[in-house]
Amino acid sequence: MPPKKNPLNLNPLQLKTLTLLQAIARLDEFSEAGEIEGERRITSLPHAHGDHFHLGDALVLARDATGLNNGAVWKALERKGLVRTDFPQSATLTAEGLAYETGLAEQILHRADH
User: Is the full-model pTM beyond 0.90?
Assistant: First the structure.
């Protein structure tokens, strides 16, 4: 039997936010190794220019990133063991958070076809 999609029953905003945090954690300019092996600590968030911002080679629309500024979303992700946070100062993605399959990366991380 295949693994259940979204086993922690994250809502759409939580899924989008986790997808973005995972992408941010993969970029050294915004993150560093966490205290525990397999974790990544977010050191800064990207800055928006108008209605979007850039994450590496991806473009993210601001409308898909509203959860990055929502403390309730961060706390929900923390309760589910995906991040440790002191919103809005810091966040660390746990190994579980980094590995969680949101299924949204292709939809919200827009990459050029060339």
Answer: yes
**Span 27-62, pLDDT tens digits:** 999 999 999 999 999 999 998 888 999 999 999 999
Both structure tokens of 36: 């525990």
The secondary structure of residue 10, as a DSSP letter, is: -
Q: Which residues contact 108 (CB under 8 A, 6 or more apart)?
A: 16, 19, 20, 60, 61, 64
Q: How many CA atoms lie within 13 A of 43 on its CB side?
A: 9
Burial 2-35 (b: 16+ CB within 10 A, else e): eeeeeebebeeebbbbbbbbbbbbeeeebbeebe
